[in-house]
From TrEMBL:
The lineage of its organism: Bacteria, Pseudomonadati, Pseudomonadota, Betaproteobacteria, Burkholderiales. Mg(2+) 2 binds at residues 280, 282. PANTHER family: D-ALANINE--D-ALANINE LIGASE (PTHR23132), D-ALANINE--D-ALANINE LIGASE B (PTHR23132:SF23). GO terms for molecular function: ATP binding; D-alanine-D-alanine ligase activity; metal ion binding. The gene is ddl. GO terms for biological process: cell wall organization; peptidoglycan biosynthetic process; regulation of cell shape. Keywords: ATP-binding, Cell shape, Cell wall biogenesis/degradation, Cytoplasm, Ligase, Magnesium, Manganese, Metal-binding, Nucleotide-binding, Peptidoglycan synthesis. One of its GO terms (cellular component) is cytosol. Cell wall formation. This is D-alanine--D-alanine ligase. Belongs to the D-alanine--D-alanine ligase family.
């Protein structure tokens, strides 16, 4: 895949990193990698931490576009995107609506359900609904094991795999520390997959699928980012027809949410029959040394530096204006 970008035309670039979310640490790693890559290609790129500087300084300091390397709340939930829309500064990734919906796993699943896309069964709980009787009904509906997570967090923050009914109350309490709503999902036994997408609309392109092989301890926050215990297989080892099916589902999921620029869908592949199930869409994926979009891009012949340039060159505003 050739990536031809006029670096001079990109202007002064802010790499937004850090922020105030629970994923600040990962965002700093992502942003640091992006910043170094862009500078190595001659881009006039600078670090900008919205937790330490008001966003209005983007305009006063003459930044012409932003690479969003923020993760989580106030980074990929549409809020920063909305601020940049008001400032008139083009930015990477999805716009306000797609970012807000994708950040909310409950709303995402409602959109996908309307499109007939495959997902695990789910139950949404609010704090007043967490009586022992209600929790017992969740187990009866979804079976065990099941997954409990806060629908507005990423990087497995606040997530628990519940093996026994007696563990559900504590899992819900943990998730409720991060969110006012708790999402309980049917557990799909099988392989974990992820598939990035680049582009927009009908021209969007799915990159190679990655199969994730976690250690016995699981694919948690620490193993995702700070160990080498997780194995990532790309090529995925899936047969060509199944890989193409997964990519087709991911593209439909991406387009249904109105995503643009880039994104990454996470899925489970059920062991019993090979059926894929969508879990979530990430609209500001990680760009660390352990991150999956750069890994998949490399398999498609795109270097980390080329990927950063390509994403930056596609920076836009919701109205379609590009930098």
């Amino acid at each position: 895949m050739n990536v031809n970008v006029n670096v001079k035309a990109l202007g002064k670039v802010a790499v937004l990193m850090g922020g105030s979310s629970a994923e600040r640490e990962i965002s700093l790693l992502s942003g640091g990698g992006v910043l170094q890559a862009l500078q190595s290609q001659g881009v006039d790129a600078h670090a900008f931490d919205p937790a330490q500087r008001p966003l209005a300084e983007l305009e006063t300091d003459g930044f012409e576009r932003c690479f969003i390397a923020l993760h989580g709340r106030h980074g990929e939930d549409g809020t920063v995107q909305g601020a940049l829309e008001l400032l008139g500064i083009p930015y990477t990734g999805s716009g306000v609506m797609a970012s807000a919906i994708a950040m909310d796993k409950v709303m995402t699943k409602r959109v996908w359900a309307a499109e007939g896309l495959p997902m695990p069964r789910q139950v949404v709980l609010r704090r007043p609904e967490c009586s022992p009787e209600r929790l017992a009904a969740v187990v009866a509906e979804l079976g065990l094991p099941l997954i409990v997570k806060p629908p507005h967090e990423g990087s497995s923050i606040g997530m628990t795999k519940v093996e026994q009914a007696s563990q559900l109350a504590a899992a819900v309490e943990l998730a409720a520390r991060h969110d006012s709503v708790v999402l309980c999902e049917e557990f799909i036994q099988g392989a974990e997959l992820t598939c990035p997408v680049l582009g927009e609309g009908e021209t969007a392109q799915a990159l190679p699928v990655i199969r994730i092989v976690p250690p016995p301890a699981g694919y948690d926050y620490n193993n995702k980012y700070f160990t080498d215990e997780v194995k990532y297989l790309v090529p995925s080892g899936l047969d060509a027809a199944l890989e193409a099916r997964v990519q087709d589902i991911v593209l439909k999921a991406y387009r249904a949410l109105g995503c643009r620029g880039w994104g990454r869908a996470d899925l489970m592949l059920r062991a019993s029959d090979g059926a894929p199930f969508l879990l979530e869409m990430n609209t500001s994926p990680g760009m660390t040394g352990h991150s999956l979009v750069p890994m998949s891009a490399r398999a498609a012949g795109i270097t980390y530096e080329q990927l950063c340039l390509r994403l930056l060159a596609a920076a836009a505003l919701d109205g379609g204006a590009r930098g």
